[in-house]
Design brief:
By secondary structure, the chain is an all-alpha fold. It has one domain. The protein contains 17 helices and no strands. Helix 3 packs across helix 5 and helix 7 runs parallel beside helix 9.
């Protein structure tokens, strides 16, 4: 019995390795594949740690942990630039990401500056100052493409006149530019931690409100689609889910769909742009660099800065007077009130300049383009999504182009490379506009624009809040002053 037992154990001992051999072999192969990857990661982190130890004699554990991502990024960019001649992998990646960001931003009627800055700074390896200048080129290219698409590629301007509400653009533009100037001054005075906290709270609030508006529009579209299908079944014919452009009375410019291109309104907008542009060129940047020598925060500086207030008030008063006079003459010719009143006619007139001023002030305070806040504000006022997206892009074109031309006149470097990025955004914006247009026509849901804007705002909130928190932490660990500052 003992012999049989020992023989049985021997046989089991011989069979066990044979059954475990494939499993062990597979495990050994997996470990062999993972070993180079783990070793490379360890070597990379050791090199980053050595670099941080060499630059600082007694770094704290928390500060060294926060400085590892920028050092790791610089290590990758140096390796990429040394291994590639001419066009680097990081530049190609920045182009692709810029194309994707521009197409999504254009489809939602948002400038996209909050997405371009991280791409240019983290992927392309540009400094924050240079990335800001490049971003103005990219936003201008995307907005110009979107406006041209609305004007030329959709019915020779007739649909654009129905989608872009020039009355809202006229009432918004002067106070919007004034608000940006005041917001920039507040940005210099407020501490970084307060700006980051206010931005996170405000943009999170706007994201929630925009999402609720999108859900409300989606629900109304679902009810409208059900009624349209029922009516079509009763009459034995098919009805479109969306009314043709120019016939929707709820659209911001539906009453002016057949009036042609409003040259007079655009001329007034260009005049406003030129006046504020000349003032900004005279003022110069925050370092006092401008077309003429003006002492920063001197008497001439503040006189030119404060002169924007009467300019904005005068232009806004003239626009309100001209629009009311035009409406009165139109009603007298018809003998009765116009039944196809626009959204501007059904809301208080002063609501638009006030909303524009608040939007511009917040944009200047947070250091972002106006497009990220313009579209949500228009949606909250009650402007239809298509009109809000097109009108927002139209106004963003004026704001971004002012910054772009100012950068050029002040001797910006790298205009050729910035033009390449602007060209990429120009093409990407057309792609985004075509895709969202087809998606709306196929689904019959304009609320897709609202959800797209919500997604962009959510991503921007996370990105800008994260990097703002890193800057605040860097100031705190370095012992920098974190209180309120004077504007000069």
């Amino acid at each position: 019995m003992a012999y049989k037992t020992s023989q049985k154990q021997a046989l089991e001992g011989q069979n066990t390795p044979h059954r475990a051999k494939p499993r062990r072999a597979k495990k050994m192969m997996t470990n062999t594949k993972l070993f180079p990857l783990v070793a490379a990661i360890c070597i990379s982190f050791l090199s980053v740690a050595c670099a941080s130890n060499s630059t600082s004699s007694h770094p704290s554990s928390s500060s060294s942990l926060l400085t590892k991502p920028p050092q790791w990024r610089e290590h990758l960019l140096l390796a990429d630039s040394s291994s590639h001649v001419g066009l680097g992998l990081n530049t190609v990646a920045a182009w692709l990401l810029s194309f994707l960001a521009a197409s999504v931003s254009s489809a939602g009627g948002v400038g996209g500056g909050s997405l371009f800055l991280p791409i240019l700074n983290l992927v392309a390896g540009l400094s924050l100052k240079r990335a800001t200048a490049y971003s103005s080129f990219m936003v201008t290219g995307g907005a110009a493409s979107n406006v041209l698409y609305n004007l030329l590629c959709t019915g020779c301007g007739r649909r654009a006149a129905a989608v872009i509400d020039y009355d809202i653009a006229l009432l918004f533009q002067p106070c919007l530019l004034l608000g940006v100037s005041i917001g920039v001054v507040c940005n210099v005075m407020f501490p970084e931690w307060l700006i980051t906290a206010l931005f996170a709270l405000f943009l999170a609030f706007c994201t929630t409100k925009t999402l609720r508006a999108g859900l409300r529009i989606w629900s109304s579209e679902s009810r409208g689609a059900t009624l349209a299908v029922a009516a079509a079944t009763a009459h034995g014919r098919e009805e479109p889910l969306l009314l043709p452009h120019g016939t929707d009375a709820g659209n911001g410019g539906g009453a002016r769909g057949d009036a042609g291109f409003p040259w007079k309104d655009v001329s007034v907008l260009v005049m406003v742009w030129l006046c504020f542009f000349v003032l900004h060129v005279f003022i110069g940047d925050k370092h006092g660099k401008g077309m003429i020598r003006i002492k920063p925060c001197g008497v001439a500086y503040w006189l030119i800065t404060l002169s924007q207030v009467p300019f904005a008030v005068a232009f806004t008063a003239y626009i309100i007077y001209a629009k009311r006079k035009k409406q009165v003459l139109h009603n007298q010719e018809d003998g009765k009130a116009n039944p196809e009143s626009t959204k501007m006619d059904t809301l208080p007139t002063l609501l638009f300049p006030l909303a524009a001023f608040v939007t511009g002030a917040l944009s200047g305070l947070f250091g972002i383009g106006g497009g990220l806040l313009l579209n949500p504000v228009l949606l909250q006022i009650g402007i239809p999504p298509q009109t809000a997206a097109a009108t927002s892009s139209f106004m963003v074109l004026f704001c971004a182009s002012m910054s772009m031309v100012q950068f050029i006149l002040l001797g910006m470097q790298g205009i050729g490379e910035a033009s390449v990025y602007a060209g990429i955004c120009f093409v990407a914006s057309v792609v985004g506009a075509v895709v969202i247009e087809r998606a709306i026509r196929k689904s019959g849901r304009v609320s897709l624009i609202v959800f797209l804007v919500t997604g962009i705002m959510a991503v921007s909130t996370v990105i800008i809040t994260f990097f703002g928190a890193l800057d605040v932490w860097a100031q705190y660990t370095s012992g920098a002053y974190m209180g309120f500052k004077l504007p000069c």
